[in-house]
Design a protein that fits this description.
Helix content: 10-25%
Largest sheet: 6 strands, antiparallel
Order of helices and strands: HEHEEEEHEHEEEEEE
Shape: globular
Strand order of the largest sheet: 7-11-10-9-8-12
Distance between the termini: 54 Å
Structural class: alpha+beta
Number of helices: 4
Radius of gyration: 20 Å
Length: 184
Amino acid sequence: MNNTCEFSDCAELLPATPDVHWFAIHTRSRHEKLVSFLLQARGIDQYLPTVTEVHRWSDRHKKLELPLFPGYVFVRLADSNERRVAVLRVPGVVGFVGLHQQGTAIPEDQIEGVKTLMAQNVPWAAHPFLKEGQRVRIRGGALEGMEGIFLRRNGKESLIISIDVIQRSLAVCIQGYGLQVLRA
């Protein structure tokens, strides 16, 4: 008996690889860096966007690296109970953000939008979360291909990058950039 088979013959016998998605996890207050470190030490793909701020006290000034979204760390993992439990066992993790503490998958383009914005040296500001609005894609320049919600306020044009699950957004000035309107 021959135990070999062509790929097309055996495809249904191979185990399906689970999809890998980004999820937001809620952390204890001021535990984002520790959780990020412990997740990385355990081999779990994580992302903690940070910003550098100068804090001034009466006797000194100090640059601090602070979480962009306080109380949240992003993890990329297969949608399985074993992986969720591994994340939940990390000290400082409160739970997954989403329905029934199972977590809601974050679209890859939302995380990539934040990563791109953090990697570029362009001015940005935190912005109230927006659900409604025209989705656009930037054409040309350092932010080529970035998608978000277009906003015009006081004659200034901005692109709003949102993380739906944690209801947080960033606004970046896009004055002078070419835009392409996207259909829903």
